[in-house]
Amino acid sequence: MIEPDQLLFKKIVNLVKRFNKQDPLVLKRTVKLEAISGRLALVASALCGNRIEVLEAEQEGGLKGNLFYLPTQFDRLDSLEANLKFYFFRTVFLSVQYLNKINLESANHDLGESRKEAKDKANHIIEEIRRDYPSIFEFYQKKKHLFDQESEKNENIPDFWLYGKLMFAGGTDATKKDTNADDAAKSDQRSATEVKSKAVEDARVINVDKKTQEDYVLTHNFEKVDTAEEFNGVWRSFDGDDSLEKDAEALNELNLRYMVRTDDEVHSVYQADFRDINGIAESKDKDEAGLCVLYDEWNYKTKSYKTDYCKVFLKSFVGNDISYASKTLKENATVLNGLRKKFSQIHQKRQATKRLPDGEEIDIDAVINLLTDIKSGHTPNENIYISKRKKESDISIMFLLDFSLSTDSYAAGNRILDIEKQAVILFGQVLSEYGIDFSIGGFYSKTRNNCTFISIKDFKDDWIKAKRNIGAIEPKGYTRIGPGLRHSNTLLKKQDNKNKWLILLSDGKPNDYDVYEGKYGISDIKQALRELHESQVNTYAIAIESTAKYYLPQMFGQNHYNILSNPNMLLHSLTTLYKRIQNQ
Description:
This protein has 584 residues and is of the alpha/beta class. It has four domains: 22-166, no CATH class; 172-281, no CATH class; 314-345 and 392-583, Rossmann fold (3-Layer(aba) Sandwich), CATH 3.40.50; 351-390, no CATH class. It has 19 helices and 23 strands. It has an eight-stranded mixed β-sheet with strand order 11-12-20-19-16-21-22-23, with helices on both faces. A four-stranded mixed β-sheet has the order 2-4-3-6. The protein has a three-stranded antiparallel β-sheet with strand order 13-15-14. A hairpin with a 4-residue loop joins strand 11 and strand 12 (304-316).
């Protein structure tokens, strides 16, 4: 147990930190990257002619591939406008660096060397800025002397902020071992706590050494309870306890350089946004039992398919949780009634059908054609009437749900998977009442060798029985979206209706145990969507995560997605979507 004096000391430190607030004048001129990262990304992408992402840096940041790392916040200049212009200067600086392909040639550089090399190579970059971006160069000239004055106190200040550091753009060394899924620990509890981590810009993934972990003998017998250490080659067991809120302060003191990937169920989430993670080995897990189909995967680097690359195991899910669907319909009765009202208005609209033998109005174009045929000696078409009739349903809709572990996290206090379930139950209830043809499927993965597609409701299945399955669904695995999209395309091709739609419900971020993050995963999803469009299938995404706004535009394009954070937004989103489906 923690000693009384240690507990008292910890409480005093936390109390001092709470009341040690920043100077209001400093706060007034502080610019936070989170508020402007989208604008900077647009500027950088335009300057570089390629898609650039702007992420938070641990300190000064730099360039790594197509990722621009910038300080989390900046307040060192004397005004809000000046600090804002600093970010634009750094964005232009990194854009020129990107175009000139200036990076470290080796990962074996310490921080001091990478900063020194950044300063040594800055002259060439600044010269290009002077020539091509005179207003940015003018800002640099005016403010550089302020950093020079600071350098008298701390020689790292100019290098630290103006030029950043050089980063290694290639892969990182990491232990690569094949991991068998049979080794995974199991737990029935879901993650209950979620805390966002500090910025991390250079991370390596290492695989769990089970033997060393089992042989580990606890050596910190006399240390205080609340402690956290960086990885130093010693493996410890994963207890899975939910102590994140208590340990968050200690975690923020760590340098998150090393991570492991494991299938152990977690009870809390320490959220960090990692990109360009290297050193991930491909798993050679045992194949799951059941029917398996093979699908290609798109490699954007070679602009070609990896033939029969993904194994998709087909499963039917049978649950018996009628209470979840009933509770959802009851608690969201207002939304459900609103949907019914909107659907009724849409279905009451009549569509004008032309070239009929009888009707309420005369089709002027048809009359002109009739007279033309008579004058030219041809047999005229006597179908010259228009009638407004109720449009018959000619629609097939498929809902594709993301069942991966990422949906076990929360957005605005609501679990992502629960919002997915509620959306499908509400929409499905109204569709079934109007006799619309629809099905529900879901997916998760554990590498390309173990992609799973679960059928919740086939097009021919009864809705009353099918909605019992939805409540029993629980999150599992990773988010390899491409195979799920391609199998959905296969199923929709078998439908006779002309107006076909695939609606994806997900947190929008592709990832898997093997390589599927970043540009690779996004490019594969874009290619799978092209395949759907070539098959005359319309696509739409409903994402339940705020960060989805960075991924969905790249994959689905504008006006083909919507981002929700709670069930109250469902009425407007689903109504708007159904209007589009009917008008297609």
